Amino acid sequence: MDSLQEILFTLKQNKLRTTMTAFGVFWGIFMLVLLLGAGKGMQNGVYDDFSSDAMDFIVIYTSTTSVAYEGMGLGRQILLTKSDLEAMPQQVSGVGFIADENQRGGVTMIYGKKQGSFNVHGVPDEYFELKNAVPFTFGRKMNPLDESNTRKIAVIGSVVAERLFEKNEDPAGRDIKVNGVMMKVVGVFNDKGNNGRDSERIYIPSTTFSKMFGTSDRIGSIWIRPAPGIDGYELEKNAIIFLQKRHQVSPEDKRAIKSFNMAEAAARVNGVFTGIAIINWFVGLGTLLAGIVGVSNIMIITVKERTREIGIRKALGATPINIVGTLVFESVLVTSIAGYMGLVLGVGLIELISFGLRASGIEMPYFKNPEIDFQMAITAMMLLILAGAIAGLIPAARAAKIMPIEAMRAN
């Protein structure tokens, strides 16, 4: 308590200097917290756009050949079939999930006096395992009986529902006309994928799609997911090789059979946010370092002003540890209090912004729920305390080496 009272007395004697020094530390930790919170908000916003889909799916689709192979020329259209879908899990190891998808764009849909033009997707009920995070605001998803019985049912996106139905009206159980065919709506989903454009589509059973549009056993694309513990990139490569052999496509042909791996896109996004986090830490710690340097400079001045006092202390029996401990404690006290205030205010401001966005219902593109990880906040505080101790230790160590007789001569 005596040491604390002495330190507080010293700080009060230099109020302006102490305030300016503390403000430098406060501002550094405050800006670090804001940068980290904003970075997390951006990350949440981008990931929210991906959240409706599984993060490891692979889509395989086809085009025309660009390389002559086994006596067949260029420009041959490659068409995927149901037999490809059935054979792939047997011939390609590591397939944990597989589903097909067909689509037809610009299909007219009518309900009463309202109508619109949207994309129709024919999928099996398993397809919604890929859309495991898509919320259904009304009704249900498709089930196996819809597929096996070729039912004329549809699940529609929220944008489709807004176009065809009145506000707050439950479309489930209503009959809409799709391409001239009456179909019963069994569910409404809200898919944020593709910037919300995935809610501008309707899904119908693949068997119903085939019958409506006469696609026979042809399919537009194959969606697969690796089994647990399987490398998705290796699975993608093996699936492409399997289809190339099956359809007599040259291994050098990169256009005939194509793929999209969500894991690759997710990895790129993760890389971007890792870079942003590094930059935020670099800028924030740089700002904080400037405040810590200010603390070190002030401690050097303090030691110089108290040289005579230090000499008297040593003459009366104070050990170097006592001298160092007092000065380091003073440095840590200033940085800790100022840093804690900056941390609390920064976290409070981030939480206030997050609450304001939720309460007002504002949805900003690529920015959602800014937040601070508790472990990250503790790490920043520990770094701050450590830096404060180092800032005080250097001038304190110099003070401990001063000989009492030299200190007594100081002005």
Using brief descriptors, characterize the structure shown.
single chain; 411 residues; alpha+beta; 2 domains; six-stranded mixed β-barrel; 12 helices; 12 strands; elongated
Describe the protein's topology:
Elements: H1 2-13, H2 15-50, E1 58-62, E2 80-81, H3 82-91, E3 95-111, E4 114-123, E5 136-139, H4 144-148, E6 153-157, H5 158-164, E7 175-178, E8 181-189, E9 201-205, H6 206-213, E10 218-219, E11 221-226, H7 232-246, E12 257-261, H8 262-305, H9 307-315, H10 320-360, H11 374-400, H12 404-409
Parallel strand pairs: 4-9, 6-8
Antiparallel strand pairs: 1-11, 1-12, 2-10, 3-4, 3-7, 3-11, 5-8, 6-9, 7-8
Helix pairs in contact: 1-10, 2-8, 2-10, 8-10, 8-11, 10-11
Are there runs of 5+ residues with pLDDT below 50, and where?
Answer: none
- Return the structural class: alpha+beta
Sheet of most strands: 6 strands, mixed, barrel
Q: How would the global form be characterised? A: elongated
